[in-house]
Amino acid sequence: MYTEEDVRRLTWQCRRGMLELDVLFVPFMEQAFAGLSEKDKDIFVRLLACEDQDLFFWLMRRGESPDTELQYMVNLILQRVQPA
User: Fold this and answer.
1) 3-class DSSP assignment, residue 53
2) How large is the angle between the packed helices 68-81 and 38-48, nearest 10 degrees?
3) CA gap 19, 64 in Å, rounded
4) What domains does the chain contain, in order, with CATH numbers?
5) Model pTM greater than 0.90?
6) How far is residue 16 from each of residues 21, 25, 49, 51, 54, measured CA to CA in Å?
7) Which residues, 6 or more positions from 61, have their beta carbon under 8 angstroms from its beta carbon?
8) Which pairs with CB-CB distance under 8 Å and at least 24 residues apart come from 47-53?
9) Of 50, 58, 41, residue with least CA distance to 16
10) In this predicted structure, what is the pLDDT of residue 81?
11) Neighbours of 72 (CB within 10 A)
């Protein structure tokens, strides 16, 4: 279970300093994180621990994460921004 303090810390971590990542992570955190299952929240936290270059590569659809759970979360984030 994520406390309010955890959510504040994660929201801060979503501010990566790279506009392309910020415009995806910050709204996702603010609008979708609370509604995720605990497992999906854990996957999102794992995704935030990745290097910015990898995140950029995955989120700009230039490649996929070798970790299927991380790729699932990337796809979930992109679906919220660009519904199919």
Assistant:
1) helix
2) 100
3) 20
4) 4-81 (1.10.150.250)
5) yes
6) 7, 9, 11, 10, 13
7) 78
8) 47/73, 47/74, 48/10, 48/13, 48/14, 52/16, 52/17, 52/18, 52/21
9) 50
10) 80
11) 14
pLDDT tens-digit profile, the chain (84 residues) = 999 999 999 999 999 999 999 999 999 999 999 999 999 999 999 999 999 999 999 999 999 999 999 999 999 999 988 765
Structural contact between residues 69 and 75, judged by C-beta atoms closer than 8 angstroms: no
Q: For 8-51, what is the HEC assignment?
A: HHHHHHCCCCCHHHHHHHHHHHHHCHHHCCHHHHHHHHHHHCCC
- Please report where in the chains the tokens 């709204």 appear, as a residue: 27
